[in-house]
Every structure is written in C-alpha cells, then in structure tokens.
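Quick question: what would this complex look like in 3D?
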Amino acid sequence: MSVLRIGHINIRVLDMDAAMNHYVNVNGMVKTHEDAAGNMYLKCWDEWDKYSVILSQSDTAGMNHIAYKVSSDAALDDYKKSIAEYGIDVVEEDAGVLECVGRSLRFNLPSGHEMRLYAEKEFMGTDVGSTNPDPWPDGLKGAGVHWLDHALLMCELNPEEAINKVAEATKFMIDVLGFYLVEQVMVGPDGDIQAATWLSCSNTPHDIAFVGGPVMGFHHCAFFLDSWSDVLKAADVMSKNRVKIDVTPQRHGITRGYTIYFFDPSGNRNETFAGLGYLAQPDRPVTTWTEDELGAGIFYHTRELNEAFTSVYT
Amino acid sequence: MFFCREDQHLLAGMAAMGKRGIPSGCHGGGCGVCKVRILKGEIDTLVMSRKYVSKTERLNGVVLACRTFPRSDIRLEVIGKMSKNVLKPVAKKKYGFV
C-alpha cells in the first residue's frame, strides 16, 4: 500500500464569484463539477481525475481538508487499521460522501488538520489526452497551471510549552502513511527542535510540508508550472489581474523550486511552483537547514524570511 | 497620513503611497493582520473573515483595512497582530519561525 499523491484540497472562500474568477482566469483551472450545496470543483489541464480543488463558501478563509489518493481500495483498509492503531480516530465514509469519489477515510493529523484518503475518483483525462498528445492544449487561461503539487500546513510550535506539532505531524506521515523526510529546519539553542519539514510520497521534493507557527492554519497550496519562463508569465498574469503577490518570482533554497507566493481573493495563499528541483528518493540524505541560514532556505535570493511568511496565513 | 482613492482599499492606498503603519498581509480579508479601528469617517466594506472581526467588533468600528474603502477623510488606529513590528523594534524569534 502507498500514498500516490495529493488528490485535492478544500478551501474556504469569502466570495465565490471572486474566487472562481481567480482559480479559473488567473490560475487557469476549469470548473468540472458543482454540488447541491454550491461547492465548486475544479481541475488543472494536466490532471486526469475529476478535480483537485474544491471551493466552499464560508465566512472565514482557510482549509477545510486536504486529501491524498492511495494506490488501491484495499490500501484504505490497511491505512484505516494503522491510523487507528497509532491512536488517531478515523472514520470511513461511504462512496459519494466526497463527490465523484469512492469510499474514503477521514481523520485529523496530530497538528489538527483534517485529512482524507481515497483510492478512486471519477476519471476525466487530461486536456491533451493520452494518445499522441501535444505537449500543451490550446485555449489555456491565465497561468495555465499543470497540477496541484503540494500544500504547506502551519502547525503549532511552542518549544517552551513542549508543543511541537510539526514533529508530531511529521512522525505520523512517516510512520503511518509511508512518507519520507526530504528536508527539515532545525532550530533552538541546541539545534534539536524540528521547526519545519518537507515530506515526499513520490519522487518530488515535497508532497506536503509542515512549518511551525503560533497557531495551526493553512499556509498555501501550490500549483505546478514547467519552467522559470512560465513563472515569469504567471507573475505578469497576476499583475494584470491585480492579484496580491506576496513574494515575486524567486527560488526557494529548500526544494530548489522556482516560486511565486500570491493570494486568492479571500486571502488564501497560492503558489506557482516550477522545476522538479531534484529526484527525491527515500535513501537520499535528508537536507537540514540551520536557524542562522533559515532565510536563505525559504527565499534563496533575498536570504531573508519576510514577516508575512510566518504571520500571514488563513 | 496618506491619500487613498475611493476605489482603493485603505491598505492598497497606504502601500501605493509608499507608507507603512498598517500591517500588510493577504489583501483578501482572510488573514486578519491589517485589523484597524475606524475612529472617524465614513467607509464601505467588503466581506471579511469572521475569524478575525466578530460581529461585536464590527459594530464598534473594527475592520480589516484591506476590505475597507474610504468615503470621507478617515482616522484610524492599528490593532493588527503584526503591529508590534511597526510600532516597536522587531522582537527576535527565539525558534526560527516563532
């Protein structure tokens, strides 16, 4: 059994029309479904399953849940057992509770974030198909993002009260869900406090990341772009559309990704993330960033951690 | 003091004039760092996160600057959570991120 990849993310938005305009016309996703409650489902052109983003109208911003797709239906039974044995309450949901998805598991990470696992989601195919495909489809809007790549979740970190939800969530992802540690930030007087982690279940530098903050929350979800020039064009698209950019095109020291941080109209941070960085492997030595070089780890060019990185999230 | 057009929210107006004082975050009403109290003047607002501005606060003139448009001269005070970094020297983080 294994986790394949991030499957979707359910984001709360304050204004659905503004949110749809952002995810469709700026990010370049396509609406594929709408449920009876008015939740909107969207996919990127290079994804083959029905959706990777669910937008839900709410009076607060943030993330409702994050979902990962697992290798087989039988794997759900195995995960259900191992999650429960780890001491975490897990609920099995019938097929269709998540729209267009088979049966699923619902539980909370030790950090408090709600996670779902599922094995089947309605197939749609990519916009270029699977037979003699062109490298990209015509008619892409905005940044034309390829796929939902990863998410970063903020976890409570308060070493003086012996609270480190980064370390707890990381241990769970490794011990129970089979992820492996790729990069980490170690802080504190003795450099022994795990303050941030980047974990993979595939061969990309991260499929999920955890960073310590004063309270838990949603830091960002990232969409994949192919190259640095795509990142530059995406930034142009954002300025044209008066999107609030948090960090203009830059490289992350951690993961080596080419990035833009920006906000959707409800203040949920998005990222366009390009470049594969390196081939992540379970036996690759874990990269460790020390507290004194933390700024360069996050933003390699400015080498400074901006205040918004740890203060501004939903 | 800064000039702000009626079609700009207070945070964008501040930033466009190169001014500082109100903490600048998501500009979408979601993160809460630009929380201010309107002391004087008329405003229009867009929807903002209930997590950071309660109904009671809203009735008492508390808003997020990024969701607030001026309809007259405005006087405000900053109450957002990054305000410590604007009004006081930045406290050193003891553990990298916190």
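Answer marked as accepted. The interface with chain B takes residues 14-15, 59-62, 157-159, 185, 187-188, 193, 195-196, 211-214, 244, 246, 263-269, 291, 294, 305, 307-314 of chain A (CB under 8 Å).
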